[in-house]
Amino acid sequence: MRRFGPTVFAEMSALALRTGAVNLGQGFPDADGPASLLEDAVAAIRSGHNQYPPGVGVPALLEAVAEHQERFHGLRLDPGSQVLVTAGATEAIAASVLALCEPGDEVVVLEPAYDSYPAVIALAGAVQRSVPLLPGPDGFTLDRSRLEAAFGDRTRLVLLNTPHNPTGTVLGAEDLAAVAALAVRHDAVVVSDEVYEHLVFDGGTHTPVAALPGMAERTLTISSAGKTFSVTGWKVGWVTGPAPLVAAVRTVKQFLTYVNAGPFQPAVAAALGLPDEFYAGLAADLQRRRDLLLEGLRSAGFAVAAPAGTYFVVADPRPLGFADGTDLCRRLPELAGVVGVPVAAFCTPGGVAAQAVEPLVRFTFCKSDAVLHEACDRLQALRR
Ligand SMILES: *Cc1c(COP(=O)(O)O)cnc(C)c1O
């Protein structure tokens, strides 16, 4: 693990603290989740739900996750054998990779990639095969020929993420079908990180990989209460899929954390049953804030495409004369009093994706209107 030093996210958050800059680096909301969710957690603590919960998760949450997958995605699951509660999506990803990969097995990953992916692939002794998502004026596109070339005899897993952090891309039907066909051809399991499943904009929809023909039997689907209910500190996630695969993940999870989040689990179970208006309102509200930030970035002189989902927009500062996103992020607090993170930090150094995204900076819009307005005002300083 020597090559995994402190992350650029920690560096940028420390920089924001030190300089008093507006932190649009790390993607955590600055408002709390639904009041009923918070009250339910308090009530659970007060009523004694404070000891080890069952290893797979409390029954109410297992049932609520299964109901949620059917209600939103038409996926039918047995709550007793096809759902596992984890310490956030992060543990679900780690336990899945550790459970299913032997040393030397290959894992296909879209790059840029969420920062835990390369680390956990290294922990498993597996080998990362990266496929670039390449930036263009209308957003990022998956390079299908490179996707096909990344698969081989040793491919064990595809670690997919849609809606995608950091690019905001929602993979389209053709991309998903291409991934599915290759997974079937190479007998690979898809581990699909869908933590932004409810954060899709402009009337778009999220399609779980597991909903594609023939994919339910080879897909582990991962999500988390953190992003859906704006409680990233609670670390309540889950993984669903075929019973034998979920059992394998459970075997690893029991030795990573054993159990987690006892009093938060019943609260999340109740929240998953919130009416459709909650989910629609969440996406609509975030879309409005996305548009606020897009407008501010454009008027400050960045080139930006509207992301189809997630908490993030990727901005190209080249029209302002900056060609290196990492260098710009280090200077941005001083230049404009704002913090972002370089997209290159999500890529293997020197790789195809790293080169393609070198100038780009990721900003989050999961912040209050006041914070976003302040950031946008400050960014105007770059024009001068
Ligand atoms: C935030 C995030 C996670 C981590 O989720 P937790 O529930 O906080 O562990 C995983 N994957 C992606 C793509 C994320 O953005």
Outline the structure in words.
This protein is α/β, with parallel strands linked by helices and about 375 residues long. Helix content is about 40%, strand content about 15%. The strands form three sheets. The protein has an eight-stranded mixed β-sheet with strand order 2-9-8-7-6-3-4-5, sandwiched between helices. A four-stranded antiparallel β-sheet has the order 10-11-14-13. Strands 1-12 form a two-stranded parallel ribbon. The radius of gyration is 20 Å and the shape is globular. About 50% of the residues are buried. The model has no long low-confidence stretch (mean pLDDT about 95). Bound molecules: pyridoxal-5'-phosphate.
Structure described in brief:
This protein has 384 residues and is an alpha/beta fold. It has helices at residues 8-19, 35-46, 59-73, 88-100, 116-123, 144-150, 173-185, 225-228, 243-256, 264-272, 276-300, 325-336, 352-356, 369-379, and strands spanning 22-23, 83-87, 106-111, 127-136, 139-142, 155-161, 189-193, 219-224, 236-240, 303-304, 312-316, 338-339, 341-342, 361-364.
